[in-house]
Each structure stands twice: as structure tokens, then as C-alpha cells.
């Protein structure tokens, strides 16, 4: 008989249970149970069928070198954003990627863990908010990488390489080009670096909407 998981409970070690509980309440989580005292306490949060366990232990049992990344899907992103505004929590609009056509925003919890919030239900074009700056660039890179991934055809590894001349082990996700015909495939991180520092670089597409296909179609119409 194969084992089956009946529930999965993410455990997040925090510095301040009260502050973290207040933050996650902005997404609909409420405390259903709590326990412990002194240097060992926990709080069990729930939102519908979704659960989250906040744990406080001193001294810390697990030295965390990198912050966690938590992804939350919500029914109405606008309502969540309004709650973040009211609580004076900073966030940025990432864009409208394929996995969150209703919008995606990025924020951090009190412990510095990155929290991404997405809406699966799409919104109409006229109701979309245009992201700016780094958020806009991140959204564009992510959507282009997703489109290329669906079509296939990218080389195995990033061709941009490391600053010391070594090969980059990351997979190639984006094709970049410049007005003089130079092209290179890069991972998302190196593509972002190139778009920032090489002023004439742009994301190249390999679909039927480029200048060449347009010119050929135009010539056929004139015949």
C-alpha cells in the first residue's frame, strides 16, 4: 500500500510570533491554536484548508542562511493590496505572468522572507496596472522566458558566462540581440544584467512577428 500525504504544514521560524501573525492575517490567516512559553512558542494559523505554523525558539535550532520564498494565491489581489497599503507594508507589482494572469506582487514578511502573491483569475487589459522600473523588467524577462520555454529550441546553458571568463552553469532562458545583429542566449540573471548595462540590447523573439517575416509578407501582398 502506497503512503499518502493527507496534509502538508509549512513551518516558518520567526523572530516575533505576534508581528508575523499580524502580517499573515493580511492574507486571511487566523490563529486557531497556540502553545509553549518563554523560549519555545508556536502559533498555528489557518486560512480555509491552508495552514501555516509559526515557531519561535531561542536559541535558534536552524541557522537560516537564505530567506524563504512563500507563494500565496489569492482570490482578489486588489483587496490584498488594499490591506497591505492600510498596514503600511511595502510591496511592488511584478506583472501579469502566465501563472498569475490576474497579477502578481512581491513583498517581505517581518523576518525578511520573500512573499509572492498571485491571482489565478485573469483581469482585462484595461484593468491592469503597468509596473515600472525593476518590477517591469522582471515581469518582462519572466514572461519572455516562459514563452521561450513553451516553444523550446534554447541551448542547454547560458552563453554569456561568468565575469571571470568561466562558463555559466545555469540554463539558457532568453535570447538577447542588438540592432547590429549580435545575439546571445543567457540565463535570466545574466539577461537582466545585459539589459541594464548594454543600452542597445533587447529581448529577441523567434516568432512570426519580426521585421523579416513582416517584410516578406508585405512584398507578397504587393505582387
In short:
With 223 residues, the chain is α+β, with helices and mostly antiparallel strands. It contains five helices and eleven strands, in the order βαββββαβββαββαβα.
Molecular structure report:
The protein has 223 residues and is an alpha+beta fold. The protein has helices at 17-24, 77-86, 133-151, 188-197, 211-222, and strands at 11-13, 30-37, 40-47, 50-57, 69-73, 91-95, 104-108, 114-118, 174-177, 183-186, 202-203. The protein has a 4-stranded mixed beta sheet, with helices on one face. Strands 5-8-7-6 form a 4-stranded mixed beta sheet. Strands 10-9-11 form a 3-stranded antiparallel beta sheet. The longest helix has 19 residues, at 133-151. The chain is elongated, with a radius of gyration of 23 Å. The N and C termini lie far apart (70 Å). The mean pLDDT is 81.
